[in-house]
Each structure stands twice: as structure tokens, then as C-alpha cells.
Design brief:
The protein is built from five helices and ten strands; from the N terminus they run E-H-E-E-E-E-H-E-E-H-E-E-H-E-H. The chain is of the alpha+beta class and about 170 residues long. It has two domains: about 80 residues, no CATH class; about 80 residues, Histidine-containing Protein, Chain: A. Strands 5-4-6 form a three-stranded antiparallel sheet. It has a three-stranded mixed sheet with strand order 8-9-10. A two-stranded antiparallel ribbon has the order 1-7. Strand 4 and strand 5 form a beta hairpin. The chain is elongated and about 50 Å long.
Length: about 170
């Protein structure tokens, strides 16, 4: 049985759909046998499966690429292997981004979730009490933190918004 963590629902849906197929699309665009794949790359520029050779060529593990998701297989004893250190580091990084942004004390602003878009770029979903200048907030966050952000407003009802801030 295959065990893997997904960076987003879109990647999860793509993986589940393709996991039912025997041949899958590799990052090169070619079709490869799924059983020969060691992981999946979620980078928008070349999403797809990787064989061991492709993984070595791209140096996914050496670079600790946050878009690479290594597959682990459960043995016959049913014990689930832990997720790779890369995946744990990615989740910790996202948690740190959200905590870091929320600790800046921007009035009426709350980061809800983040997605790693590129090496030092995160897309941050947020809610706000009232109107905010996204460019000003983005610049403020970029100056205070060691990463860049792209903000995405989440529309919620006023009652939900009040609960989030109280």
C-alpha cells in the first residue's frame, strides 16, 4: 500500500486519479510505468511522476525540494512508514509562515493557510476586518520575514469573521 502526503487537494485529486492507472505521466511528459516511480513533483512548471534516475538528475532529495513527494510503501506487516523529512519540514515551514505573519500584529488581518509556491514564495490565504491595502501588507511582511508572500483573500460571512477574531 502506498503512503504519501499531498501539498494540496488538486495534487491529491490528480494523484488519486492517476494512481488507478498503470502508466502515468512523468515530469518529462513521457509515459512511465507507475511501479518504477519513486515520487511525485508538484511544481507547476513540470508536474508529474519521477523515476529514480529522474530524481537523481533533478537532485530532488539533495535540494530538499518542497515540491517533491517521495513514495513510501507499507510492508506486509501493515506498519506505516513515516513521511519523509522533506514533507515534515515543508509542513513545519508552512506552520511557521502562518504563525510568523499572525505574530506581526497587523490590525484586522489574520493568515489562515499558506501554500509553498516557489523556493521563498508562499501564497497566503487570509481574512480581514474591513479593507486592507494588500500591496502595503505584502511589503510589510516581505520586510519583516525572510520569505515573500502573495496574498489571497478568503471571503467569509461577517459572523464567521467575528468568530475568527474573537
Amino acid at each position: 500500500m502506498l503512503v504519501v502526503a499531498f501539498p494540496s487537494e488538486q495534487v491529491k485529486e490528480t494523484f488519486i486519479k492517476e494512481s488507478e492507472e498503470f502508466n502515468v505521466k512523468a515530469i518529462t511528459g513521457k509515459t512511465v510505468n507507475r511501479n518504477n516511480c519513486v515520487g511525485y513533483c508538484a511544481l507547476d512548471e513540470h508536474p508529474g511522476y519521477l523515476t529514480q534516475d529522474m530524481c537523481a538528475l533533478h537532485k530532488c532529495l539533495e535540494k530538499e525540494c518542497v515540491f517533491f513527494y517521495k513514495f513510501h510503501y507499507q510492508g506486509k506487516n501493515g506498519k506505516q512508514r513515516e513521511l519523509t523529512e522533506i514533507q515534515k519540514k515543508n509542513q513545519q515551514e508552512i506552520d511557521d509562515v502562518i504563525k510568523g505573519i499572525n505574530s506581526l500584529g497587523i490590525d484586522g488581518f489574520k493568515a489562515l493557510s499558506a501554500e509553498h509556491i516557489h523556493t521563498d514564495l508562499f501564497e497566503v490565504e487570509y481574512v480581514a476586518m474591513g479593507t486592507i491595502d494588500e500591496k502595503e501588507v505584502t511589503n510589510w511582511i516581505d520586510r519583516k520575514c525572510d520569505f515573500k508572500v502573495r496574498l489571497k483573500l478568503k471571503n467569509v460571512s461577517f459572523d464567521t469573521l467575528l468568530k475568527m477574531f474573537l
